[in-house]
Amino acid sequence: MLSKILSVTGRPGLYKLISTSKNLNIVESLADGKRIPVYAQEKVVALSDVSIYTNDGDTPLRDVLRKIKEKENGNKVMIGTKASGNELFTYLKEVLPDYSKESVYASDVKKLISWYNILMENNIDLDEVETTEETPSDAAESASEEQ
């Protein structure tokens, strides 16, 4: 399911892919359900393609989200958006002890927590098996290469 959940650069929140064509994708905001066009030149990333830097390489976002869900028993994370960097990194260390202290920033942890909370609010299944179809970012890249 995370291959259909997108982050669009310059737009807050997360979006669900509704349809794809050569030059644009139609996405639906998970926050308010509004549908908007996202054009091929806009940077779109499927959550299935995101990972967190660790000391040994990186860990897929799906695994980190599962660890958060396990820690929180499926509930939202209660760390607020005004949390200090120390609070954010203490929380991340609890779910991903080997995160890279040089490569992961407080803003990354805030985004991770925000994304997790949005996914839980919308009952997105983190354990759903991904199919091997083309991801939205692949579709956007191939559309922009054709131009």
3D structure, described in words:
- This protein is α+β, with helices and mostly antiparallel strands.
- It folds into two domains: about 1-45 and about 130-140, SH3 type barrels (Roll), CATH 2.30.30.730; about 50-120, Arc Repressor Mutant, subunit A (Orthogonal Bundle).
- Helix content is about 35%, strand content about 20%.
- The chain has four helices and seven strands; from the N terminus they run E-E-E-E-E-E-E-H-H-H-H.
- The chain has helices at about 60-70, 85-95, 105-120, 135-145; strands at about 5-10, 15-20, 25-30, 35-40, 45, 50-55, 55-60.
- Strands 4-3-2-1-5 form a five-stranded antiparallel beta sheet, with helices on one face.
- Strand 3 and strand 4 form a beta hairpin.
- The chain is globular, with a radius of gyration of 16 Å.
- Mean pLDDT is about 85; it is low at about 130-145.
What's the quaternary structure here?
A: single chain
Shape: globular
| Helix residue percentage | 25-40%
Strand order of the largest sheet: 4-3-2-1-5
Q: H/E series, N to C? A: EEEEEEEHHHH
User: What's the CATH architecture name of the largest domain?
Assistant: Orthogonal Bundle
Core attributes:
globular, disordered C terminus, 7 strands, five-stranded antiparallel beta sheet, SH3 type barrels, single chain, alpha+beta, 147 residues, 2 domains, two-stranded antiparallel sheet, Arc Repressor Mutant, subunit A
